[in-house]
Design brief:
The complex is a heterodimer of chains A (144) and B (487). Chain A is mainly alpha-helical and 144 residues long. Helices cover 68% and strands 0% of the residues of chain A. In chain A, helix 3 runs antiparallel to helix 4. Chain B is of the alpha/beta class and 487 residues long. In chain B, strand 18, helix 15 and strand 19 form a beta-alpha-beta unit. The longest helix of chain B is centred in the N-terminal third of the chain and has 19 residues. Chain B is globular and about 80 Å long. Classes of the chains: A mainly alpha (144), B alpha/beta (487). At the A-B interface, helix 1 and helix 2 of A face helix 4 and helix 10 of B.
Chain lengths: 144, 487
């Protein structure tokens, strides 16, 4: 993934779409290679969530940009939110859970940081806070 | 994204796409690359009359369509614009140059105009009194009038026509859009979508072109009113002409918007707002900051923070996410801004940040000028008085609010003005005294939303009623008084 200075609202959303897309692909791939029923179910939920999130992010982008407020954003860059999604090696269930927890933690950290930066768009800020909250719920399920 | 394949854009008349028979065309450029991406036909008088005739023919049936039915079409157009949002946005940036988030913001406003116009069934209600004399009742009915048209600008090719036509057809008129010949593709894209909605033929038409088309629209006895957005110079000429032909008219002209920063302003919040105001859309908006009035002690810290923020502002191809400022919309526009910058230097202003000669890798032919800041500007300099329409901040140091307002009022324009302050008293004084139509209090771009009129005063607006909101309903209808008695 190319490093991106997340200095505009659109850049933040684009980055969110990319990492959500990569996370969903990873979850789909590893879900096809595990036999643990509970883990299969959890990964399936993550894939479904990813599809919904992409629609949500596109809607947030469409509905929340008004030309009256397009102030530059500082202090957020994509390098700080890298995720590991290489599913090419045979991964055991424990490694899958560890990687998935890492992805969810990074997503949570990203949405939390981004929410603070876009406080001039309260609807978008709130939506990001909810997304971060839901990442937290999945982390609990992975660690259970 | 889908690239429009037509070389010469077509007119849209009576529900059909029609190739223009015009011999003269004008090139349409991608401002980031300098490439020709389409051509605009300079439609003839005859073609323009066809559009007017189609609108005139459609009027009687359309005005008798129930209001709720009329606005259901607007709802469907609104939904279709939402579904095609990103496609519309990319077309806009490709032809006009603004950063993609700015195009998204423009389309959000476009859609808001459609949403607001669906209030027409309520907004178009009249009023009445019984027994104004014994047994005699009186009422006002707001009636549509016929064929209206707009002459649209190059800086907001998606949004500005929707300040007008949704309200116009919502109340029962029919319409002809004349897009800017410089940026016709956004309207072409919109009309492609509108065509699929199935508005009755002739209700909404589009004619491309230049002065011949505009003159035909004004001179035709079958049109009733004009909405114009562009330069004050051209606006005044057209307003005079519409008067000679007894048309209604609303003319939104140029601007030189003064942004006043008081000593008690919150600079951490003020500076980002100033950056957006001066550099948003590369300064090509009638609500853009035109001059920064730094009052008293705020001058030094403000200047320092402004230069630092401006240096970080990224310039590039607007289609790339993360780019904060795109190119100027045309080569001529860029050259005009460069002349303005030179005039600032020649008149003795100090160039703190020079946006000339900015290099944007991979786009050597784009019309780019980077963020530019002048200091030690005095009120009599050209850059302090005349519209630059580019990403330039002239800083004028003033001693107090009275001096700031004196400078503002000496300017012939009166489109917008903003004050940045923590004092409610100063804010009230400002909104009370300053003669500008759109006032911002701690807001750098005082852009009215669709439910409010897009105001303007002095040379920035000519006419009585503005675009958008309740003003639009008044402009597009006549109050018919009916006095009744029954024997």
């Amino acid at each position: 993934m190319i490093s991106l200075d997340l200095g505009t609202f659109g850049a933040i959303i684009k980055f969110a779409l990319e990492i959500e897309g990569r996370a969903s692909e990873f979850y789909k791939e590893v879900g096809e290679h595990t036999n643990d029923e509970r883990l299969v179910g959890l990964l399936g939920d993550l894939v479904t969530r990813g599809q919904k999130r992409i629609k949500t992010l596109e809607r947030i982008r469409r509905e929340n940009v008004t030309e009256i407020i397009l102030e530059p954003i500082e202090g957020l860059d994509s390098d700080s939110f890298g995720i590991e999604t290489d599913a090419s090696l045979a991964l055991d269930d424990s490694t899958v859970k560890t990687m998935a927890t890492g992805i969810e933690s990074t997503l949570q950290r990203f949405y939390t940081a981004a929410a603070r930066k876009i406080d001039f768009l309260p609807e978008a800020e709130y939506a990001f806070e909810i997304l971060a909250e839901k990442n937290g719920e999945f982390i609990k399920r992975l660690e259970a | 994204m889908t690239i429009l394949t037509v070389e010469v854009v077509k007119n849209y008349i009576n529900g059909k796409w029609v190739e223009s028979k015009a011999k003269e065309t004008r090139d349409v450029f991608n401002p980031a690359t300098g490439e020709v991406i389409a051509k605009t036909p300079m439609s003839t008088k005859e073609e323009t009359l066809e559009a007017i005739n189609a609108a005139k023919t459609a009027f009687d049936r359309w005005r008798s369509t129930p209001a709720l039915t009329r606005v259901r079409h607007l709802n469907r157009i609104r939904d279709a614009f939402e579904e095609n949002f990103e496609e519309l946005v990319k077309t806009l940036t490709m032809e006009q140059g603004k950063a993609i988030d700015e195009s998204r913001g423009e389309y959000r406003r476009t859609i808001e105009n459609l949403e607001c116009a669906t209030s027409v069934p309520s907004l178009q209600m009249g009023y009445n009194s019984e027994d104004i004399a014994a047994g005699i009742d009186e009422m006002v009915i707001k009636q549509p009038l016929g064929v209206f048209f707009c002459v649209a600008p190059f800086n907001f090719p998606g949004m500005v026509p929707t300040w007008f036509w949704p309200f116009a057809i919502g109340v029962g008129n029919t319409y002809v859009v004349k897009p800017s010949e410089q940026v016709p593709l956004s309207q072409v894209k919109q009309f492609e979508i509108i065509h699929e909605i199935g508005l009755p033929r002739g209700v909404l038409n589009m004619v491309h072109g230049g002065s011949e088309a505009v003159n035909t629209l004004i001179e035709s006895p079958d049109t009733v009113g004009m909405s114009f957005v562009g330069s004050s110079r051209v606006g005044k000429l057209l307003y005079k002409k519409t008067g000679e032909y007894t048309k209604r008219a609303q003319v939104q002209g140029g601007a030189k918007n003064f942004l006043t920063v008081m000593p008690d302003a919150d600079l951490e919040r003020t500076v980002p707002a100033l950056i957006t105001s001066f550099y948003g859309c590369a300064g090509q908006r009638c609500l853009a900051g035109g001059v920064l009035l730094a009052v008293g002690d705020i001058y030094e810290p403000l200047k320092e923070m402004l230069v630092e923020a401006a240096k970080k502002y990224t310039t590039g191809n607007g289609l790339e996410e993360g780019v904060q400022m795109g190119p100027l919309a045309s080569k001529k526009g860029m050259e005009n801004v460069l002349k303005s910058i030179q005039s600032g230097i020649d008149e003795g202003a100090e160039l703190l940040l020079d946006g000339r000669g900015i290099e944007v890798p991979e786009y050597p032919n784009g019309y780019f000028i980077g963020p530019t800041i002048f200091d030690k500007v005095t009120r009599d300099m050209i850059i302090a008085k005349e519209e630059i329409f580019g990403p330039v901040i002239p800083i004028v140091q003033v001693k107090d609010l009275d001096e700031a307002i004196d400078i503002i009022h000496a300017n012939p324009y009166g489109n917008a003005s903003s004050v940045f302050t923590s004092s409610g008293k100063i804010a009230r004084d400002y909104q009370y005294r300053v003669k500008a139509g759109n006032i911002g209090i701690n807001v750098g771009v005082a852009a009215p939303i669709a439910t409010f009129p897009f105001s303007g005063m002095k040379d920035s607006f000519i006419g009585d009623l503005h675009g958008q909101g309740r003003d639009a309903v008044e402009f597009f209808t006549e109050n018919k008084v009916v006095i009744t008695r029954w024997f």
